[in-house]
Amino acid sequence: MDRAEQDVPKRSGPVNVLVVGDTAKALTNIEQLSDDRFHFCPNLPDAVARAGRERFAVIYVVMSDLDGQSKSNLAALHCASKNSRVILLAQVHEEALARKMVRSVKDMSRPADDYLICPVDAGNLLHPVRTGQEAAPAGFSSLLAHRDDRIHQLEKLAMEDDLTGLKNRRYVREFLKQIIAKAATEGRPVTLLFFDIDHFKHYNAQYGYAVGDNVLKQAATMMRRCCRSHDITGRIGGDEFAFIFWDCPDSPEKPASAKAESVASERRLTEAALPTEAIFMAERFRKEISSAELSFLGPEGKGMLTISGGLASYPKDGSTVAELFEQADKALREAKKSGKNRIYLVGK
Question: What is the value of pTM for the model shown?
Answer without folding.
Answer: 0.67
